[in-house]
Amino acid sequence: MKVQPRLLISIIFPLVISVLSLLIYVGYSEYKNNQNAAISQATSNVRIAREYLEHHFHSAQSHLYLLEQLWEEKNSIDGLMGAAQTIVSEKSKYLEVGLLAYGNYYGTDGFYREAVAQKVAKRPWYMPARAGQSYITPMYLSGSTGKWTVAFVAVLETVKQQEVRIILEVDVESLYDNLSLLKTLDHGYVYAVERGTGNIVMHPDPSRIGTPSVSVSRDLLAVIEEGKGAGIISSYEYKDKEKFSVYEVNDLHNWIVLSGAAKSEIIMHTFSISAVTLSLLVFILIIGLSFYIIHRVHIYGRQLSEVESLPELLDALKQMVEGVIGCQSIHLYMRNVYSGDFESAQCKHCISEKELRLNLASKLGRLAKLPEKQPDILSAFLAPGKACIRVPLTKNKQLIGLLYITSPRLELPFFINMLRTYAQGALGHVMLALRIQQTDAMTGLRNKNYLQAQIEKQLKAEAKCYVAMIDIDDFKIINDSYGHLFGDKVITSVANCLREESDRHAVVARYGGEEFAILLPAKDLLAAKAKLESIRSSVSGVEITDGRKSCRVHVSIGVAEVSDNMEKSIARADQALYQAKANGKNQVVIYCLNSMLQTTFAE
Q1: pLDDT 10s digits, 537-572
Q2: Is 283-436 in the same CATH topology as 31-266?
Q3: Whole-model pTM?
Q4: What kind and span of H or E run contains 56?
Q5: Which one is the CATH code of 448-600: 3.30.70.270, 3.30.390.50, 2.60.120.10, 3.40.228.10?
Q6: Which of 68, 265, 514, 515 is catalytic?
Q7: Could you confirm whether domain 283-436 is CATH 3.30.450.40?
Q8: What DSSP character marks residue 187?
Q9: At what angle do helices 413-438 and 284-305 cross, to 10 degrees?
Q10: Any idea which UniProt keywords this protein has (predicted)?
Q11: Cα–Cα distance for residue pair 511/516, rounded to 1 Å
C-alpha cells in the first residue's frame, strides 16, 4: 500500500504545530521557574542586606549614646573630642564626629569653626529638633571629607542658651563593601535608595550615588507611603535592559533596600535549557527524563536559595546532588574567613589553604573527576579508592568552598555546573549570615554562641582540647578611673592581643563584658597552661593608651579540659578563674578533679 504525499503533508503540519506548542509550553514553564528562583534569591539578598545595615546602624547609635553620656557627665569639649577621635581612628566606617557647642563647631582631626550659630541651620546635618531627641539625616556629600555620608545627630540640653549637638558621620560607601558580594543570578546586585528623595545611597557604581533611581518611581514611593513596605518591581528599563527588583523598606534609616537582575539573564538560562530540551526531542524517551531532571534541579535550587543555616544547607545540598546525579555521599569544605583554613562542615577536619594549593596547584579552581592520575589530598582522605567529583565553589573569583561527590551515578557536566551555580550562591549567603551571627561586633572575635558550639564539636572528637576563661583584672576600677570609652579600648586591645598570641587553630571568643574564652588544642593540661602563660605575659606587656592617658592591664585565667559536656567544661574553667581571682589575680589556675594548680606572677 502506497502512502499518498498529501497524507504525509497533512500529518507534518499538525506535527510541527504540536512540537512547537510543546516547546513554547516547556520554555514558558522554565522561564517561570527561573523567574521564581531569581525572585527568591533576590528576596534572600534583601533580607541579609537589611540585617547587615541594621547591625551597623545600631552600632553607630551605641557610639553616639556613649558620647552623649560622656558630655552629660563631664561637660568637657576636650574630653568628648578625645573620645570621638578614638572612635574615628578605630572605626573606618566613621568619617567624622562633630560637636556644636557654645556657638562653635569642633570636629575630629583638628577641624574647628568659630561662631557658626547663625550658619548652622544651613548645614546638611541640621534638622529642627528638641533637646533629648536624636535623628538620622538624609544622605549628603560631606564638605570636610568629600565622601557620601549619613549623620547620626543627638540634640542635648542647651548651654548658655546655645544649642548643643553631637554629630556622627558614617561613610556610606564603606558599608557597601560586604553587600557587594550578594548577587542575584550572575550579574544582579544589591543597592539602596533613600525613601525621602528617591536618590541612590548604595550602588556598585560609585558614580550613581546621589543620583535619582530609575527603579524607584514616584508611583512606587506613593505605594510605599500607603503602607506597602515590601514587594516586587516587576519591570523597569536601565541601560537599555529590562530589569526587575525585589524591595523592602527599612524604617530604621528610611532606606529602600533592593536586589534584582536583568530579565535577559532569566531568558538566557531558559534558552540554554530549552536548547537541551529541543535536542532531546529527537529521542522521545529522553524528553521526559530531561524535563524531569531540569524541573527537579529548579525545585532543589529554590530550596537551596532559601536556606538560612549550615545544617539546612547540607540537607538541601545532599537532596539536590542525590536527586540530580545520584551519589553515595557528599562532603563540603568551607573556607574559614578568620584562619583561611578549609574546614569540613560535617566533621572536625580541616586543611590549610597553603597545603591545599601546594597539592592541587592550578587544578583547584576547576571541576575535576577523581582519581585522574592520582587522587587529591582530600579525596584520598574522604573516599580512598572511590570515584569522586571535586566541585569548586567560588564567590567573585575567590574560592569559598569545595564540594566532593563520592561514587556519582551520573557524570554530566551540564547538570553538575547547574548544581554548582545554586550551591555556591547558597553557600555565600550562609557564610555571610554565619559571619554576622558568630562575630562579636565590638572586638571582631567569635562570640559566646560560636564558642559553645565548637566545644560541643570537640566533645565528639578524639583529640584533647581545653577551654580557658579569661577575665581582665580590676576592670571596674579602670572604667571608673578612665571612663567607659577607655574601658572599651582596653577590651579591644586585650582582644587583639589574644587573637595575635593564640594559635590559628584555637577559637578566641568574647564571652561577655570584660570576659574572654579560648578553646585550644594541646597534648595535656601542662602544655595548655604553658600556652596560656605566654598569652597572660603578652597581655601584661601591652601598654594601652588613647594619647592622653595610658595603663597596663593584667588578666586572670582558669583552664579546664573539655569533657563530660559543654556546661561542665565551662563551669570548671570558671571555677579555676574564680580561684585565680581569689589567689591574687594575674595568674593561671588549672582545674583538676580534687585540687587546682596555679602559677602566680609578680609584675
Answers
A1: 999 988 898 888 889 999 999 999 998 899 999 999
A2: yes
A3: 0.45
A4: helix 5-74
A5: 3.30.70.270
A6: 514
A7: yes
A8: T
A9: 10
A10: Membrane, Transmembrane, Transmembrane helix
A11: 5
